[in-house]
Amino acid sequence: MPKKIRVHCPATIANLVCGFDVLGLCLEAPYDIMEVSLLDEPVIRISSADGYPLPSDPAQNTAGAPLIEMMKEIEENIGFEVVIHKHIKPGSGLGSSAASAAGAVVAANKLLGERFSNEDLLRFAMFGEKVASGVKHADNVAPCIYGGITLIRSIHPLDVVALSAPELYVTVVHPQIEVKTSDARQILRKEVLLKDAIKQWGNIAGLVAGFLKNDYALIGRSLEDVIIEPVRSILIPGFDEVKSLCKEAGALGGGISGSGPSLFMLNQEESIAHKNEEIMQEVFKKLGIEYKTYVTKVNKNGVVEV
Amino acid sequence: MPKKIRVHCPATIANLVCGFDVLGLCLEAPYDIMEVSLLDEPVIRISSADGYPLPSDPAQNTAGAPLIEMMKEIEENIGFEVVIHKHIKPGSGLGSSAASAAGAVVAANKLLGERFSNEDLLRFAMFGEKVASGVKHADNVAPCIYGGITLIRSIHPLDVVALSAPELYVTVVHPQIEVKTSDARQILRKEVLLKDAIKQWGNIAGLVAGFLKNDYALIGRSLEDVIIEPVRSILIPGFDEVKSLCKEAGALGGGISGSGPSLFMLNQEESIAHKNEEIMQEVFKKLGIEYKTYVTKVNKNGVVEV
Questions:
Q1: CATH number of A169-297
Q2: Which residues of B are catalytic?
Q3: Across the interface, which of B159, B199, B205 has its CB nearest the CB of A151?
């Protein structure tokens, strides 16, 4: 059994426009790098390779809390040392906390000879999300662990469905503004119109069918959100312009990544994904907002050893 | 070109538990029989072979209104005579009006050398639903025309997605009580909790994935409705007992067909479908309610010439 491994912990896009709280997609870039070592004493030590300050109590850390849960189900006298190279900016809406939580448990499981199932790992990793945002949601950690596109059909009981999809190029822009997940959640209404909910479940059903049937046009038509986006997009300057210009340029569709502020567009063609990137850069340059862009693909593997 | 044809117009199940207003499934039984003749004058004549009284104005008839719409797009001086053998009871929740509307336009289109697309036919047939219930819904006419299982992703613009599925045996019971579609719609709340809507779109996404991935267990887990069923099932005596006993006997799941009062259960095994039938018969016998049951399968063809 190796005593130390190194993993890539990818960014993820939660919600996927019409799949609020249930759909997620794993990206090839950006990703964190994490080094995890097996210790022969029951402690958890976590540090940042970049000098980023972390909570000293592992229970308060997004990588630590999942490891504590995992250790509750292990009889041996072991612990873990984790060094995180953070490349996914916290607060970007790209699943930074999920990458830490998922990376820690996938790496630890490899060090332990793969004794836990993906579903176990997901269950542990959700404790990291609870530390990060107060909610034990799974729409980022699931695609980060399983890879590809995942549906969380239900949280209680946990039911994860892996969805195949045709090749997709993803353009992402992270405008360097702050949108807190808790704020993005608070501005949502607790009740929605039944007629809007019907539109939304027509769209998510269409999106899932589009993925599984490799039907790009159907994916594009289904990427519509009549409930969350009209409220949350107000928090993100440039949203309408980015979306309409990218779709005009040939993007299938897209929207807010997680609770934002990052935006993403899905594309059938790599060349259009690059055009989308230029559009995003121009919009945020004009707005005078710092940004970072990525042209990437769906990552079918999730967290992997490197 | 034939001057007269005879078609089978099958029953359909709308909603499919978690797909309110968007999902529908075509059944092999029961079905109406319809004879449609091409006339050389621009009239529509509709009669019932069983002496069932029909509105004399074709515009007020579920088969007539769609034919009127079709004739608006035809330049020739032609008309249709329609004789309906009604076997799907109006008010059963099994798409009786949709069978008449879909049967009429599919038959007429065959008499005209198939000049209209399925999407055109659906557009026409929806006028029959408007006559029947006041709402131009498509969740029965779409599976009746396309066959199999259909998703109406959107009504404006019309977007129909055909969904493949593994072999399914369907048990249906029609308790002979009256539930008016308009009543069944009125008792629904116009607003729903966002957290319930999220459960519902998790389930419809799971159901669509289950169909397309031939995953019976996922189909079963996804057949859950937290929004419509808790309200509508109150109108149907025996509902809870039928559902829980059938599931105990091995049914994947099921619920109210359309707006009821018919109930249905989906099954992987034919033998369990027959057990479900016995359960349904016992429940309604005990309640002293007349009933009719069917053990049937998904009809992949929709309206067909016979």
A1: 3.30.70.890
A2: 129, 181
A3: B205
